[in-house]
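User: Hey, quick favor. My workstation is busy. Could you predict this chain's structure for me?
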Amino acid sequence: MNTRSRSPRNTWCGVRINAAGYVVSGAIRSHIFRPLVDYDLWFAWSGHAEMVWRQQSFAIDPGVIMCLRYQQEYETRFNPETPVGHCYVHFDFLDDAGNVVHPAEPDLPPHYSQTRDIEFTYLTLRRVADLCRSQRAQALDEAHCYLRGLLLSLVRSNPRQDVPPLELEHRRRIAELIHYIREDPSRGFSVARIAERGHYSADYFTKVFKQIHGTTPTRFFIGIRLERACALLSETTLNMEQIAEELGYADVFFFSRQFKQHFGMAPSRWRQNRQGLALNR
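Assistant: No problem, here it is.
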């Protein structure tokens, strides 16, 4: 007999991911979720849409997180002019014996919430999807840990509370600009041009961006470009000149110097280290 006490509010201990991914809605105009066979964590990082549940409408903007409920039906209405970039994770809640459970409503994440940490949430859920794609046991364990932590943070406190509307608006607009850079890190950019795209002055954009992300737009966007460099180094056989060209660098030596400043090693050394790790797995 299990004599361990359990808080009446703790009706789940773990999660099991059934599917995960990240997509942009594109030309899709609507999508109906038939009665769900599991739960679905649905997060928007860009664009605008509408989610309908029981004749109640929810605005989908960057930073919105919805925890779609088991056996419920939803409809998402998209506008092709503002395609929505979103992450999704279909999952089950598990008890401490590994059995599927359906927690009481107070133990579930909020049905609809708005996070301040758009970039963090996007990267976390994208990491979950990438880990699940590998199908390796250790990678799946890591994905489950990321998802469990995110769900617990949502249960603990509704991130929509106490966020000033102006701050939410800045975070939405800046998330759209970050997505614009992520779509094609090779495109030339300047702070002034990105600020203008977001309807900011360059100085005010830099100030607001630093308040939200703790760094300057230039450093942040260089980081995005170098993240893409890491993917090309590990997933392709392109040489350094080809990678530099792919990322929009006019000078391979400048690319190598910037990479080393960011990661502490040359890109060729980084690739060698990654190949060595792969061989030892």
